[in-house]
Give the backbone structure.
Amino acid sequence: MDVRQSNGTALDVEALNFGFDGAPVLADVTFSVRPGEFTVLLGPNGAGKTTLFSLITRLYESRDGRIRINGVGLREQPTKALAGIGVVFQQPTLDLDLTVKQNLLYHGALHGMSAAETASRAEEELGRLGMLERQAEKVRKLNGGHRRRVEIARALLHRPRLLLLDEPTVGLDVPTRQSIVDHIHALCRGQEIAVLWATHLIDEVAADDSVIVLHKGVIRGHGPLDRINRDAGGSDLGDTFRRLTQGSER
Amino acid sequence: MTPLHYGRCLTGIVAREGLRFLHQRERFVAALVRPLVWLVVFAAGFRTVLGFSVTPPYQTFIQYEVYIVPGLIGMVQLFNGMQSSLSMVYDREMGNMRTLLVSPLPRWYLLVCKLLAGTAVSILQVYAFLIIAALFGVGLPLFGYLTILPAMVLTGLMLGAIGLLLSSFIKQLENFAGIMNFVIFPMFFLSSALYPLSRMKESSVLLYQLCLANPFTHAVEAIRFAAYGEANGLSLGVTVAALVVFLAAAIYGYNPARGMMSRKAGGPAG
C-alpha cells in the first residue's frame, strides 16, 4: 500500500497496444485510476473492454505498453501486482454446486488467507450486501442478482485497492442493477477503493464519475462527465456517446 | 508470497476439487462402473481365450482378472486425467478458470496445484474401485494397497499433465469428443493394460514398438510392479520423463504472453 501512496494511482495503463493475430484490438491506450475514483469504461460491444480487462488481470500479456497496479509493474512483479486487484468478470465464475461460503473459502485460499480470516471477512462483505443469511446455500439456488453480489463480496475479500468489474450488471433487472451500481459507488467513496467499471449502458454513470469512452480499441474521450460532454459537444452523455462512437455498428 | 500462502492455495484447490467430485455423483459412479465392467464382464469372457506364460512381477500363473487390475487402475487415472482437462476447458468457457489464473501466485504453481488436486481425486476413485474388486475376489497382496500409492501419485500426475496439455490446446468443449477417439482409446489399447506386451510382439512388431513408446504402458507397469512391492526402474523413469515433458508443455500452453486464453474463450467480448 505504501507503494500505492508513493505513486498516487491505483491503476496506470500507459501506451498499451494489443492485437490478435495481427489485428489490433487496443491502440495506444493510456489512462489511470486514483484511489476513491469511480471510472466508467464505456464502450459498445466489441470496443475492447474485455480485452483490456484481460490484460490488466494478466490473463494475457502485451509486450507493448505498461500496466502498473498500485505502483507495481504487472510484467515485472505479476504476483505482487495481482494481489492488489479484485475482479468481477463478465461471465459468472462461481461454482454452482458449492455453497456461497465454500466459494468464498476457495477464493480466500487462493489469496493465501486462513479459513478463519476468510470466514470473518466473508461475513463482513456478505453482510454489507445483505447476503449473510445465504452463506450456507448452494450458489445454484441463488438468482442472478444474488450471485453477482456474492461475486462482488468475493472480489473484496482480500481487501484489494483496485476493483475491476466487467459489465457486472448484464442480465439483471433494473432495481438489482441500480442497487449494485449504488453499492459499488458507496464502497468507492467510503473505502477509497479505485473502481474500473466496464459497461455499455450509459445510465450506470453517476454525475461525479470519471468516464473513458473506448471505441474500436481507441480512447475517444476521457475525463469527468461534464468535461467529456463539453469536449465532444454533446448535450448529455447519451449524445456524447453517440458522437464519439458513430459508425460503431459492426 | 510466503510458503504459508502456497500451502493454503494448494489446500484450497484440492478441497474445491474434492467437493466438486463429491457433488458430481454421476462422475464417481461412472469412474467405478467403467473398470468394473472390464473386470467382471470383459475379463470373464477373455480369461479362457488369453493364456500367457508367467511374466514379472508375477511369480506364478495368475488369473486374467488379476493381470488387468493394474491396467484398470491406469484406466481410472487416464479417464480422470482427461476429465480434469475437460473440466478445465469447461471452466475456461464458463470463466471459473479466470479466477484461478488471476490469483497472486505463479501460474506454473497454480497449474501444478490443479494437477495435484486431480491426482488426489483419481486416487480416491482407484481405492473405491479396488475395494469393490476385492469384494469380487480380485485382490492385490495386502501390502500392495500401500505400495501402489506412490506409484499412483506419479502416474496420476503424468496422465493429468497430458490432460492439462490438451486443455491448453483444445479450443472448445465440442472438440473434446475427439479426445476419446484419438487419445484415450489408442493409449489404452496400445499398452500392457489388457495383455502382456510379449503377446503383442507375437502379433505385430510395429504395434509392440508403439506400445513400448506409449507412456501409458509404463504407467501401468509402474503400478503393476508397485502392487507387488517392486520398483520397475524403466517404467518409473519413463513416467517421470513424460510427466516433466507434458507438464512443461502445458505450462507453456497457459503462458499469458501467448494470448491463447482469449481466443479459446471465444474471443474478446467487449
About this structure: Residues 64-94 of chain B form the longest helix (31 residues).
